[in-house]
Amino acid sequence: MAQRSLHSPRLSLLVLLCLLLVCGFLATSLASYYASRDAIRDSIVNTELPLTSDTVYSEIQKDLIRPVLISSMMSRDTFVRDWVMSGEQDVGQLTRYLHEVQNHYGAFTSFFISERTHTYYQAKGVLKQVREDEPRDAWYYRVRAMQEPYEINVDPDMANQDRLTFFINYKVLDYDGQFIGATGVGLTVDAVVKLIDQYQRKYDRSIYFVDTQGKLTLTGAEGGPFGARVGQSLQDIAGLESLLHKLPTPQSGSFEYQERDRGHFLNVRFIPELNWYLFVDKHDRQAFAGIRHSLYLNLLACLLITAVVLGLVGLAVRRYQRNIEALATTDALTELPNRHGFDLLASQALREAQRNQNPLSALLIDLDHFKVLNDTHGHLAGDQVLRGFASLLRNSLRQSDILCRWGGEEFIVLLKDTDHHAAFKLAEKLRQQIDAAQFAYNGANLQIATSIGITDLRQDDTLHSLILRADHALYRAKQSGRNRVCVEPAGH
Ligand SMILES: Nc1nc2c(ncn2[C@@H]2O[C@H](COP(=O)(O)OP(=O)(O)OP(=O)(O)O)[C@@H](O)[C@H]2O)c(=O)[nH]1
């Protein structure tokens, strides 16, 4: 019971320490994880995505400004207007003109559509006649009807294997301001698509364009969000169905949405030249992977540190407890068991002897006139004699005998398997040895005599009754002149 009660505070201490360490480590690790997450999130929302959006936007503007100027010049060109107004006589003249513009300015295509004949001219010659009921020609009728002098449009170029092309469509007016046709140049969006691809690969983000109806208009080579293709509506893409309704207002800004188990950061910018939205989209799993990895490493390190600290504290506490236990049962001066230590050892020895009906004798040993020795030579000399006496006793007894400093200058010995006759012989031998012994102290040789009381164990004895009888025997030894051995046999 005593052992267990010593262990439970140790266990509580270790559990408490473990809780403190785990809570402390968890709190600091999680706090730094969430702080880093917020910092990364801020950087994505406020820096990374807007920067990508700016770059893509400026790339588009760069690509568009030159063609807009060229188209503007074409629409004001007197040759074109004169040629139309003089009845579109020599097709070769206009074709050469368009060919020259296309080659010189590096455009992908150049065109003129005549309002009078509805002929679509381009660098290679006449392409076709535009018709109001042909969906592919709707753009022309739109341009004709619009207020603004020009529009930028993205369409498949039917003259060039339907490659997606930016068209700058300018209205051409005669000298009286009457609409006589539409002209302009087209350039492929390959450069923008390449840029999109490069950014998507390098920075792990999706870049795509969406029109005001929510339809994907331009994506990287591998498609838009979740592989969606141009023409698909955001409303048909799982996870993005409700996105359009939630988009930031008025037209540009940041937005976050959830796609099953991962969050997305979205930067949306309205591009007035195209009447499109530019979407730059990044999911958080990749962004947070690094700090999540460090969080796991942190927690692992914390676990290891906790385990090591607990192990070391456990060892230290166990050693400390052992020392305390030893101190509690050992006499510091003689290093013999003290009365508490003796109680533990003696009770067990008594039980064993009584159970097995083995003889056992108790010797109560008291130094004679020790007070005189103390008074004459000093207390330290007394201590030295007590140490020497204890060591002499220890050396004269068997390992199995139980020896203890009972208090002051009194010692007790339990001799296992020994009746009072044998005990008497041993005690007498001890008494003579001590009588003859000299204890060196400070240049002097000190001598001391002992009185010894002996008794042996009865079946009904307790430790108390056994010692009481030995004490009677000791008393008789003292009374009858000291330096002698007296026996109080069990029968008395
Ligand atoms: N130096 C020293 N003296 C101690 C220690 N413990 C007890 N004593 C002394 O031992 C002395 C015991 O004195 P008494 O009980 O009168 O016994 P005594 O002088 O041996 O006389 P008798 O036992 O009658 O022969 C006291 O003076 C105590 O102070 C100790 O650890 N060191």
Automatic annotation (TrEMBL):
Catalytic activity: 2 GTP = 3',3'-c-di-GMP + 2 diphosphate
Cross-referenced Gene3D superfamilies: 3.30.70.270, PAS domain
Native organism taxonomy: Bacteria, Pseudomonadati, Pseudomonadota, Gammaproteobacteria, Pseudomonadales
InterPro entries linked to this entry: dCache_1, Diguanylate_Cyclase, GGDEF_dom, Nucleotide_cyclase, Rev_trsase/Diguanyl_cyclase
TM annotation in the entry: 295-317
Calcium in keyword set: no
Identification of the protein by name: diguanylate cyclase
Source taxon at top rank: Bacteria
Membrane topology qualifier: Multi-pass membrane protein
Location of this chain's protein in the cell: Cell membrane
